[in-house]
Amino acid sequence: MKHRKNIECKYCTLKTSTLFEQLTEEEYALLNYDKNCQTYKRGDFIFHEGNHATGFYCVNEGIVKMFKTGTEGREQIIAFAKKGDIIGYRSVLSKETFCSTAKVISEAFVCFIPAQRLFKLVETNHDFSLKLIQQACRELGTANKYITDIAQKTVRERLAEVLITLLEQFGINEDGYLNIPLTREELANLVGTATESVIRMLSQFKSQELIELKGRKIKVLNEKELQMISEQF
Amino acid sequence: MKHRKNIECKYCTLKTSTLFEQLTEEEYALLNYDKNCQTYKRGDFIFHEGNHATGFYCVNEGIVKMFKTGTEGREQIIAFAKKGDIIGYRSVLSKETFCSTAKVISEAFVCFIPAQRLFKLVETNHDFSLKLIQQACRELGTANKYITDIAQKTVRERLAEVLITLLEQFGINEDGYLNIPLTREELANLVGTATESVIRMLSQFKSQELIELKGRKIKVLNEKELQMISEQF
DNA sequence: CGCGTCTTTGAGGGTACTCAATCGAGGTGG
DNA sequence: CCACCTCGATTGAGTACCCTCAAAGACGCG
Q1: A224: number of CA atoms within 13 Å, CB side?
Q2: What is the pTM of this model?
Q3: Are residues A168 and A216 in the same domain?
Q4: Taking a C-beta distance cutoff of 8 angstroms, is the pair B93, A137 a contact?
Q5: pLDDT, tens digit, for every residue of A26-64?
Q6: Domain final position from B149, B167, B184
Q7: Do B173 and B144 reside in the same domain of the chain?
Q8: Which end of chain B is more exposed for a tag (fewer CB within 10 A), N or C?
């Protein structure tokens, strides 16, 4: 992917799933002109929490994790971004510094779009700005649900829920394993618990034949039951 | 407050702190025509989680709590809305049902504005729509911070943080007590813990002379130290 | 093959939850 | 005016969940 060539936004196959669906010729041209794309390897940072937000990013390929660094340096994963998702727009628009860090989970191709282009689009394109609001509102809904879950559910319930969510969000590969490579620690940072707790719970799920484990890879065997657990029955 | 008369939006003293700051004459007129205001007593519901969102609300007076109902009926308080805040817009824009319930904490005067007026404003007024996006983005930032806190901090740290937040958000009355009347249970639902845990922690804070308690009323005596605790030093 | 990183397992302990009982204040009705 | 009732606040006891620390095992990479 190293020497990957930029695709013109106008012809980008992802535009239907992003906000950039119905721009004018001119807007496409400007967007394309302003953008700055590059590949990132696993472990690379796209932006850091606290940095000044000079623009936002559109993920064309790969998986990115968004996390906040809490006390004693522990990461709390807030969300993942994949093909077609935009990240960092939140901080650009609210004119704050980035409120989370974006780090690459699997090799990614990401386009950077400077802040003023975003503001310009919001100003001139109603459709775009409505979609953007809706995007933010959906994320807000998800975040609120997450707060309730973390506050009220047990680790067991949350882990089950996370597995279901990952399954829906990233699907499975040809072997039936979840299509996202996470370390145990990352899983823990997503669930909001200690690494060891995740490990213990995973082996419990395994012994109940709800999942199959092969190193870092996870296969969901009984989605229904996991669903039940996550809703605590 | 029972027979309170509606104020014209255009002359509403709160408009500077809300999104409705720079509307055209016509927009003010339409907003004013469409709205529907009423008073609510403590305990009244403004809207319920899961209901169809036919519009949003602007709080003119009083305090409203927003919460999600989690497992076994336990409330998780997501936010408060006071004078000048708008609520429910999230669900209107993302065209979902209300994702939380709004219930009155202290007597409130609230204006309802139907969905199509909101969509119309977003469509025709760039300034309004930018402010709305920024509002959503700020809320999103807060929510993400909250997730990290709940996942990583202890009850003691979270309670200290909540007290500081309430102090900043609602201030104190002439006696020096926090200007928001919350039951112990509501505090617990905000912190994300059991009622008894909040009570125990409050008396611990009291014995350390960080706060003073008088029935339901709380006075912060040592903000600095509470701040320290919330950041775990 | 050796090293580092990640994973796993075990032991021990602390935080915070649940359950239960008591206390206290405010409101109601006799 | 007081007994009564109800709801919220408080306190205590017991325990479950989950965290931390420590050590050993597995895996991948140079």
Answers
A1: 0
A2: 0.93
A3: yes
A4: yes
A5: 999 999 999 999 999 999 999 999 999 999 999 999 999
A6: B149
A7: no
A8: C
